Amino acid sequence: MAKIKILIVDDSVDTRLVVSARLKKHGYDTAFAADALQAIAIARQTQPDAIILDLGLPGGSGFIVLQRLKANTTLACIPVIILTADESPESEFKGLEAGAVAFLHKPVQEESLIAAVECAVGGVAEYPITNAELRR
């Protein structure tokens, strides 16, 4: 059986490496994109099982990436987890309204990250998932 692949979209190398290490520890395979343009191209190429998406990206915001993913018939069904330093309720609402299945804040605890990924790829929880719900 093939490993579940998660695309990590973040302009910070450190964030990509930390998130990847946590996912690999739990048996997931990872791919990376560092900006908005790469995100769409690599999503098309790798067809990941889920995408972890930062909002502050070079080449376009994470919101634009999310809109483009959801507008693409081959990528629209991929669950997107937003992982961002933006803690504004407006951004959380906008991200979830645009189709993200979870909205997490940096720095994210490993347990929260894995719970959101497992829910996204396994479909075991009702969406959307937020940090507040994962702390329960």
Structure, explained:
The chain has a single domain, classed as Response regulator (Rossmann fold, 3-Layer(aba) Sandwich), CATH 3.40.50.2300. It contains six helices and six strands. α2 packs parallel to α3 (62-71). The protein has a six-stranded parallel beta sheet with strand order 2-1-3-4-5-6, sandwiched between helices. The termini are far apart. The chain has helices at 13-25, 36-46, 62-71, 89-97, 110-122, 131-134, and strands at 5-9, 29-33, 50-53, 80-84, 102-105, 129-130. Helix content is 44%, strand content 18%. It is of the alpha/beta class and 136 residues long. It is globular and about 30 Å long.
Write the layout of secondary structure elements.
Layout (H helix, E strand, L loop, with lengths): L4 E5 L3 H13 L3 E5 L2 H11 L3 E4 L8 H10 L8 E5 L4 H9 L4 E4 L4 H13 L6 E2 H4 L2
Entry summary:
This protein is an alpha/beta fold. It contains six helices and six strands; from the N terminus they run βαβαβαβαβαβα.
* Corresponding CATH architecture: 3-Layer(aba) Sandwich
How far apart lie the N and C ends?
A: 33 Å
Give the strand line-up of the largest sheet.
2-1-3-4-5-6
**Proportion in helices:** 40-55%
Please indicate the count of domains: 1
User: What is the count of helical runs?
Assistant: 6
- How are helices and strands ordered from N to C? EHEHEHEHEHEH
Shape: globular
In what range is the share of β-strand residues? Answer: 15-25%
pLDDT below 50 for ≥5 consecutive residues: which ranges? none
Structural class determined from secondary elements: alpha/beta
Q: CATH topology, what is it called? A: Rossmann fold
Q: Say which CATH homologous superfamily is assigned.
A: Response regulator
Computed Rg: 13 Å
Describe the main β-sheet briefly.
6 strands, parallel
The first-level CATH class is given as Alpha Beta
Question: What's the mean pLDDT score?
Answer: 91
Number of strands: 6
